[in-house]
Specification:
globular
Length: 282
Amino acid sequence: MRWELFNRVRIKVVGVRELDPQRDAAKYAEQLLSLHPRLFTRLEGGAESVAARMAARTIAVDHLSEVCALPEAIEALERSLSVATKSPGERLVRVAALAYLVCERDLIRDDLPAGYGLIDDCIALRGARLATPSVAEPDHLHEDLLEIRYLSVAVPDEVLAATEDALVHAADLALRASALPNHVVEAAIRELVSNPPREFSAIRTVLPESGSMAPRPATRSEPRELATLAPQGGEPGSSQPLPSPLTLAPGELVELDKDAMLFAFPDGTKLRRTHDGALSFE
């Protein structure tokens, strides 16, 4: 088997290692203010205000820290591929996430300044881990949901829906793989490793349709129902469903106190960043 996928991943990692959160934060913040003035509309003076510029820099440092952690995240994901308890479907989802990283035409151009074009790659890796939880690995569920939502505030509005769809696709891919014979799934893995697609859309068709095949019974290692993983909210006893944890929608910065921020989203979710950088849903 040719290991073209992993060769391309190594090349991409070299570029990521050249980034520095403190040094490159100003350029990232410029991109954020330019592409997302709406994020700062609730601040007095909007995106042109000093407060918006300070907030944008804080967000930039946080996001670039996530981008700069990609090499370690990739290494951990690659190690997980050899874990004996991983099903073929789970390995396929994680290999597909690596394939997304090296797509020449993914959802956000990689060549945007200061690593801005890599935020969708960070979301893809966290989405793959979210879709393939394992009792043999630390539970990153809450962390992944928080970071995906925080990163999403910088995703261009025109690709937010597609980014959300990609997250849903990762979970769906694991479920579809569970309905197919292992040799079919393994063949899909080999194809991605040997011939990683240049277009993101090609990853979506890596598996044949399962047709009328009945899925085998779920096991503990298979994907959890993501609809049950939503941030807490809503009134007790209310029939109103909680928002999906995979819902991505344009957010607004509604509170700012130096480095502490509160973001609000149309689905009612609120995301708080504390002074020390900790994230939580409200």
